[in-house]
Write a structure and sequence with these properties.
The structure holds two protein chains of two kinds. Helix content of chain A is 36%, strand content 23%. By secondary structure, chain A is α/β, with parallel strands linked by helices. The relative contact order of chain A is 0.15. Chain B has an eight-stranded mixed beta sheet with strand order 2-1-3-4-14-13-12-9, with helices on both faces. Chain B has a four-stranded mixed beta sheet with strand order 6-5-7-11, with helices on one face. In chain B, strands 8-10 form a two-stranded antiparallel ribbon.
C-alpha cells in the first residue's frame, strides 16, 4: 500500500543547519549530515536540504554536505536553494541528490523548468512555490507567488503558476505558505488544497507546522501527498516516528518500518 | 569478485555505489564496486548493475552512445550468464521496447513493453513517488529474508512508466497503486527493480546484499 511521506527539512547555511522564522533570525543548530543520519534512523521518508544562502555564498559547501549525506543515508534526498543553471542541477545530482528544487529561477524563466525536466527527467525536478494570500476579505481566495524570502511579489497566481510548471515538466510541487511559515499555526489548508487539486503531480505541503495535527490536516484536508516540517523536528519537540505514529492513528497510511 | 556499475551518464551512480558498498560490508563480502564506462571493465566484472533515471529513450540512446557497451552487456549477461541488476529505467531497458514519448527498442531481454502506469483512482498522482509495500508474485533469491506484503518493508518508487511483461513468469513482485504496478522482473540471470534499492533503506540494502550473493 502506498504511504504518505513525512519530510524533515534542514535549512543549511555555510554547511550548518539553521531554521529561519519567517526567513529571518537564523539560529545555528548543528551539522546537517549528523541531523540527516538521525532523521534516517528515525524513519523519515525523505530529506530536504534548503541551501538558504546559496545565491551569494560558496556552493561547494552544500555539494560536500550532499556527498557526505548520500554516503551515509540510503533514502531520498531533495536539495534546493540557489539552483539557477543546468550545471547547478547536474552538480547536485552527481553529488547524490535525488531531486533538485527550483524556486526563483523558475519564476524568472519558465523555460528553465522545461530544459531541466528534458535533461534530467520530470521525476527529479521539483518546483518550489512560495505563496502569500492576496485576496481582499470577502473576495474569493487567491494566492500570489513571492520571491526573495517572501519579500518580492511577482503578480503570478499560485494555482495558475503551479499548473504551468507542471505542464513544463515539474514532477512535484513543494508548496510553502509564506503567511504561515514560522508561525506554528498550521499549513494554509485552502492554498494547499487549491494547488493539490489543480495539478496531477504530488504536492508537498510546507510552512507553519506547530503540532502533529497540522501534519494530518495537510494530507486529509489539504490533499497533499507529503508534508514537510523543520522546527518541530529539529529542536526535538517531536520525533519523526511520533509524527508518523500520530498520523497513522488518525487513519493515514504511514510507513512504520522498524 | 568485482561489481561494475555502468556509467552512461544516467542515474544516481554515487548513491548506488555507496549502497552496494554498504551492503557488501554488512554481509561480510568485501567486493570492489567499480563505477565504469569502459566495456572491457564490464566484461571483466562478475556482477553488473545498470542504473537509470529519466526518460526511456534518453537512457537507451545514452547507453548506445557508449561505444561497445551494449555488446559487452549482451556478452556478459546473456551469453556468459553473469548476474545483472537493472534499477528503475535500467530495469525498464531490459524490455523489448519503450513507449515513453516515442517507441524505442530496448535490450529485449524480457518480453514486454514499458508503458504508462494508469491508476484506476484518478485522485492518485503521477509520478508514483514515494514508499510502497511489495506483493510477491513468485519467489526469487533477491527477495530472500525480506518481509513482504501489506505488513512488510517498503520500497521507494519514483516513476510514471513501468515494464509490463507479456511473460507472467518474468514478473516477481508488484506494488499496488490504484492497480498493480511492476516492482521486480527477472529472467535467467537478470533482474530489475522499478524502485530504487539504493534509496530504500532496510529493504534496499537487504535486496542489494542478496544480489551480491546471488548465484543463478
Amino acid at each position: 500500500m502506498f504511504k504518505v511521506r513525512v519530510i524533515p527539512c534542514l535549512d543549511v547555511k555555510d554547511g550548518r543547519v539553521v531554521k529561519g522564522v519567517q526567513f529571518v533570525d537564523l539560529v545555528d543548530a548543528g551539522d546537517p549530515v549528523e541531523a540527516a543520519i538521525a532523521y534516517d534512523a528515525a524513519g523519515a521518508d525523505e530529506l530536504c536540504f534548503l541551501d538558504i544562502t546559496a545565491s551569494h555564498e560558496n556552493r561547494g559547501i552544500i555539494l560536500d554536505v550532499v556527498t557526505r549525506t548520500a554516503e551515509a543515508c540510503f533514502m531520498p534526498l531533495t536539495v534546493g536553494g540557489g539552483v539557477r543553471t543546468i550545471d547547478d542541477i547536474r552538480a547536485l545530482l552527481r553529488s547524490g541528490a535525488d531531486k533538485v528544487s527550483i524556486n526563483t529561477a523558475a519564476v524568472n524563466n519558465r523555460r528553465f523548468v522545461k530544459d531541466a525536466a528534458e535533461k534530467f527527467g520530470d521525476q527529479c525536478i521539483v518546483v518550489a512555490i512560495d505563496a502569500k494570500k492576496v485576496s481582499a476579505s470577502g473576495g474569493s481566495d487567491r494566492w500570489e507567488i513571492f520571491t526573495h524570502g517572501g519579500r518580492k511579489p511577482t503578480g503570478l497566481d499560485a494555482v495558475d503558476y503551479a499548473r504551468e510548471v507542471v505542464a513544463l515538466g515539474a514532477g512535484e510541487i513543494l508548496l510553502t505558505s509564506m503567511d504561515r511559515d514560522g508561525t506554528r499555526q498550521g499549513f494554509d489548508i485552502a492554498l494547499t488544497r487549491a494547488v493539490a487539486d489543480a495539478v496531477p503531480v504530488p504536492v508537498i505541503a510546507s510552512g507553519g507546522v506547530g503540532g502533529l495535527d497540522h501534519l494530518v490536516a495537510g494530507i486529509r484536508d489539504g490533499h497533499a501527498t507529503a508534508v514537510l516540517a523543520a522546527s518541530i523536528f529539529h529542536f526535538g519537540e517531536f520525533t519523526v516516528r511520533q509524527a508518523k505514529d500520530h498520523m497513522a492513528r488518525a487513519g493515514l497510511p504511514m510507513r512504520l518500518d522498524p | 569478485m568485482t561489481v561494475a556499475i555502468v556509467d552512461y551518464g544516467s542515474g544516481n551512480l554515487h548513491s548506488a555505489a555507496k549502497a552496494l558498498e554498504r551492503a557488501a560490508r554488512e554481509s561480510g563480502r568485501d567486493q570492489p564496486i567499480l563505477v565504469t564506462d569502459d566495456p572491457d571493465a564490464v566484461r571483466r566484472a562478475d556482477r553488473i548493475v545498470l542504473p537509470g533515471v529519466g526518460a526511456f529513450a534518453d537512457c537507451r540512446r545514452g547507453l548506445a552512445a557508449v561505444s561497445g557497451m551494449v555488446e559487452a552487456l549482451e556478452e556478459s549477461v546473456r551469453r556468459k550468464g553473469r548476474p545483472f541488476l537493472g534499477i528503475c529505467v535500467g530495469a525498464q531497458l531490459m524490455a523489448e521496447r519503450g513507449l515513453e514519448y516515442e517507441v524505442v527498442e530496448g535490450l529485449g531481454w524480457i518480453p514486454g513493453e514499458v508503458d504508462k502506469i494508469r491508476p484506476a483512482d484518478p485522485g492518485l498522482k503521477i509520478p508514483h513517488m514515494g514508499w510502497n509495500t511489495l506483493d510477491p508474485v513468485r519467489s526469487h533469491p533477491l527477495l530472500e529474508g525480506i518481509p513482504l506484503g501489506p505488513a512488510g518493508l517498503h520500497a521507494y518508487f519514483v516513476h510514471s512508466y513501468h515494464l509490463h511483461t507479456s511473460e507472467r513468469g518474468c514478473l516477481v513482485a508488484q506494488a499496488d497503486y490504484g492497480g498493480p504496478v511492476t516492482a521486480i522482473v527477472a529472467r535467467d540471470t537478470c533482474a530489475g527493480t522499478q524502485f530504487h534499492p539504493e534509496k530504500s533503506q532496510r529493504l534496499g540494502l537487504a535486496l542489494l546484499a542478496n544480489f551480491l550473493k546471488w548465484a543463478p
